[in-house]
Amino acid sequence: MFSFLLFVTSVNVQCAFEETEGALLMLEDMVETQELREKQLDHRFQLALYQEKRASELQDLKERLTEEHLRKIAEYDKQRESHLKERQAVFQEAFEEDLQRFKSQGALPRSKTSGTDKSTPSLEEIVLDEDSVDLESFLADQNQEDGGDIHKKTEVKDAKEVGDDNASTNSETTGKSNSIKVLSTNDDDVG
Predict the structure, then answer these.
(1) Contact yes or no for 182/126 (Cβ under 8 A)
(2) Count of domains for the chain
(3) Around Cβ 177, how many Cβ atoms within 10 Å?
(4) Residue-range definition of the domain harbouring residue 167
(5) Residues 16 and 88 in one domain
(6) What spans are recorded as compositionally biased (Polar residues) (predicted)?
(7) What is the pLDDT along the chain (191 residues), one digit of tens a residue?
């Protein structure tokens, strides 16, 4: 019986050892899980601090850029205003001179526009010489396609008459349907 008792006790002790070993393994797992949770909380806290820091830096950057932009706008406005004042002064001076001339002479001098120069002819100086032979032949071709011979005879006759008159013009324009001639005028002639 003693051996039975010893066997039962050894079995109980062995079961207790196994239970204790299992409990120790569970405790180690719980400790590791707790440490992992603490590390996660620490990382989350560090991330929140970093995000706050970056948000603060971003806000500071926005404020600095806004101030710089407003300063540049103010500088630009000052430059623009001074430029406009200078321009206004020049125009006012020119106006005063024109007004004095008008008062003394009774008429304003002819002003020169800045967009035109002496080499560019005005519309009054341009004369178009129309060569209607090409137009008449085109219309004649159209009439043939349409079957209209009524207008063809008169148009061809008119084209021949114009063609004889413009023979010298055709040689000058080298096949172009229109030529532009500029009448030369002297500045003394313009009154």
Answers:
(1) yes
(2) 2
(3) 13
(4) 123-182
(5) yes
(6) 111-122, 166-185
(7) 667 777 778 888 889 899 999 999 999 999 999 999 999 999 999 999 999 999 999 999 999 999 999 999 999 999 999 999 999 999 999 999 888 888 888 776 666 555 545 677 777 777 766 677 877 888 888 888 766 554 444 554 554 554 555 444 444 444 444 444 444 444 444 43
